[in-house]
Amino acid sequence: MQFLTPKQVCAKIALSRATLDRMVADGRFPTPIRLTERRLAYEAHLVEAWMAQQVERENA
């Protein structure tokens, strides 16, 4: 399993951190896991699946 930092996720999906946080809060993006008290991470496979879903939605 691979983890991505919020900064890496933002670079990968081309959205700001504020937008990413709003999407997580609204349930429109996978929820990060807490690695430590101060460190969040996203599971890479969930981010990839979300990206594939967005492409699929655009092409439908």
TrEMBL record:
The lineage of its organism: Bacteria, Pseudomonadati, Pseudomonadota, Alphaproteobacteria, Sphingomonadales. It comes from Altererythrobacter xiamenensis. Gene3D superfamilies: 1.10.238.160. InterPro entries: AlpA, DNA-bd_dom_put_sf. SUPFAM superfamilies: Putative DNA-binding domain. This is Transcriptional regulator, AlpA family.
